[in-house]
What does this fold into?
Amino acid sequence: MRTIGVEEEFLLVAEDGSPRAVAAAVLQHASSQGDGDDAGEPGGNLEKEFAQEQVETSTHPCTDLGSLLEEVRAGRWRADSSAQHAGARIAALATSPRDVEPTVVVNRRAQDIAAEFAQTARDQLTCGCHVHVEVADDEEGVRVVDHLRRWNPVLLALSANSPFWRGDDSGYQSFRSQVWGRWPTAGATAPFGDAATYRETVRSLVESGTILDTGMVYFDARLSARYPTVEVRVADVCLDPEDAVLLGALVRGLADTALDGATDSGPQPRAEEVRVAGWRAARSGLTGDLVSPATGRPVRAAQAVDELVRHVTPALERTGDLPWVREHLDALLRRGNGAQQQRRWRHEGADDAELVRRAVRSTLG
It folds into this structure.
């Protein structure tokens, strides 16, 4: 069975709900516990991110959804334990409800990015969820990347968890995606067709001198430079750990469907159409219309989600994931994604501090 893994980025927050620039202390404690930054290992460690107000966890590659959920939960608990030793907690919020000026980590590459990209870099206190799905080689990987294009906006809508920005309601369910989209390589791509075209595109982007290196190729889905995987980067970090695993199951279903030779409904959409669908998903999430992946026309969010599930049902049946996916997807649609939960808490009277405290509890499951 194809393995999947999940990387999650978290805010480090104080008791009053404000982000705290204590990543170095958190990572130092994690390292003393044998859980520090080790980029050579495929998952399991706590790692730095771009800002000192955040950290990243990652799972080992898993085939079983139950094992993946255990790893997601364990990573969150270990990260929170180290955060507490630095006087903070972790919160699975894709943006901060409170206004903050992020602090770039003390790292040459990060400092170079901050200098070159100015306000775009200064605004990047955002937290995503990245799903890695195993592929045999780059040719398989490109088939998966191309197949994912029309479905990525639905994954974004399911994960949307960033309604607040700089102390205000942004009006979006995923404002993280809007902030992230300012990077020159971020977002939807045209179909690549084969690995040679993908590699040539990446080479051209680097040789343009606009980005520093291949690590700044921020496509919604890309070939991983570290592992034999496709890395799907479109999602917000999920408030609930089960939702992160649900994303993993759906991404694996899409990968299996692509490599089984299935065709999408109709010709590949243009990049402009995928970008519009992504914007729609960021704006209304699960509470309004989405762009149908099958027809390109507006449909209720539940119908777009249903199109995705029906598309991957044969693959989910073969892996045995279908009952789990249906159960947890029903739970997500009943309770709402992270953005819906945050707004519900605000409607109930939660101030920033209380909203973040509730997020911390949800983060730890």
About this structure: The radius of gyration is 19 Å.
